[in-house]
Amino acid sequence: MKVWIKYIIGTLLGIIAAFILPLNIPQVESAVSSISEFAVRFGRYSLIPLIFFGTAMSMYNLRNKKRIMKTSLWTASTIIGSTLILLLLGLITILIVSLPRIPITGEKISEDPTINIKEMIFSTFPYSGFDALKNGLFLLPVFVIAAFAGGACASDINDSKPVLSLFESAMKVCQTMSAFFVEWLSVGMIAISCYWMLQARSIFSVTTFVPIFVMLLADFIIVAGVIYPIILRFLCKDLHPYHILYASICPIITGFFSGDSNLTLLTASRHTKESLGIHDETNNFSLPLFSIFARGGTALVSTICFVTIFRSYTPLGFTFFDVSWIFGVALVTSFALGSFPQGGTFVALTVICAMYGRGFEAGYLLLRPMMPILCSFAGAFDALSAITGSYIVAVKTKSFDKVDLKHYI
Question: Does the model's pTM come out above 0.90?
Fold first, then answer.
């Protein structure tokens, strides 16, 4: 059975269970939440070893073949390009379509997470390189030390042969292990989707948030069905660009219901390799960078949310300066969310409201009840962008093998 079918079955079972389980018993939701958290941790379990050994071998092969610069430039360009496209789409749709006003609440500001750029930089280069492997949330430190290890091996191949043999063997073992976790995560999707649906039922009991849901759904359909296929058609000369969407079904489901970019990376890495045929040297280099930095979906969602909050507070329109400011801050903020694999949308919205000031510091509280849904859409956008972007990089660097659609997992 195809992996994506298993995930759909698991998701449907979880949604059905959410309507069967009693909502008036707190212990039930607590139990489902605990099982869902266990499933997420289970899925992440093999991710750090996979990134470390995979990136090390990728950096070695790319440097040895003198393709590191070309791959890096295409990866960076695609990350920036996809973020700009999604951000522009979100800004255009929310400026054209005026969503209903959200009632102002009297809720007080609490202590919320912020983006600490200095701490992120320091955590990328801890006192000990081995400490980089201890943090399971922020993947950039793992990527950096693995890249240095692989690059060092390429500088002296003869002396590095034993280490390279170890890295290559370990990478293959980790890929086999991650395939096992991806398969069984479909069972965990029952709990993950059940917990998501329990939250969604309480959110949609208030019709105030339905228009935002509809707008985000429409934007996702436009991106997945129109914008990205057109880009693939002209940039990659792909006559059948919708096969990328087919290969992205499983990562999109994972990203939507978990809202976790790290968990999504695990499922995406297997599908880009086995379904799209992307070579390990490109897949293990580009895909982690997309997961860390390509948060255009988060930028799109936070932009729509901030404009909705602004209109809820005041009937005044936007000046060109306001639009430019929102665009610039949302763009920059999206690149600094790597240490927030979950809840990045909430952090981004909090930061944008705080930076804008003028009495809007607590504006994010209006949409805090809807945050699970907002993070779900951000995760789905980011998963699709990561798959599409990795494929573009692979095509432009000629590092993929065509796989027949019937062999997609």
Answer: yes
